[in-house]
Amino acid sequence: MVLIVLTLLIVQGAQAPVTIARGSASGIEVAREVVVRTPAEWDALWGEHGDQRPRPAVDLSSQMVAAVFIGTRPTAGYTVEITGARVEPDGLVIDYEERQPPPGVIVPQMLSAPYHMVTLPHRDGAVRFVKKGQP
Fold it and tell me: Most buried of the four, 12, 40, 61, 123, by CB within 10 Å?
């Protein structure tokens, strides 16, 4: 049964994003969706992101990085998650969700800038990001 499911995912062009960085404190304070395919682009994005940790190693000859930054939010408790990727006739589609703190929940009163970065198999061509709840 597992083999059948895996075979169907491969045939349908499903992509399995692998998280390499995720959090609530990016130096990128304006909402942005990014695809990185070259070492120079990866260096620039990691530098702009401002993380003090070493940049994750990514083999950009076989992988690419997809990232979503939702910009500055007024409190903690906001998150973003890349939930999947799929191949469609017009290119690769990357799905993601943004979540906000539930009403009535007490959260720290501090600015946050949530982000999520993943690797995917390298693919040339168009990439479109789709936020859950949008067509």
Answer: 123
> pLDDT by residue (tens digit) across 83-124?
999 999 999 999 999 999 999 999 999 999 999 999 999 999
* pLDDT the model gives residue 3: 42
SS3 20: strand
* Cα angle 35, 39, 44; round to 5: 70
Average pLDDT over the chain, rounded to whole?
Answer: 90
Per this entry, what is the length of the chain? 135
Enter the tokens of residue 86. 């799929």
Task: Give 34's strand partners.
Answer: 67
Alpha carbon 92 to its chain centroid, in Å, reads 13
Q: Which two tokens stand for residue 129?
A: 């990001």
For residue 96 the two structure tokens come to: 């993601």
Whole-Å CA distances, 47 to 1, 11, 54, 111: 44, 37, 10, 20
Residues 101 and 77: beta-carbon distance below 8 Å? yes
Give the closest residue to 72 by CA, choosing from 34, 129, 114, 109: 114
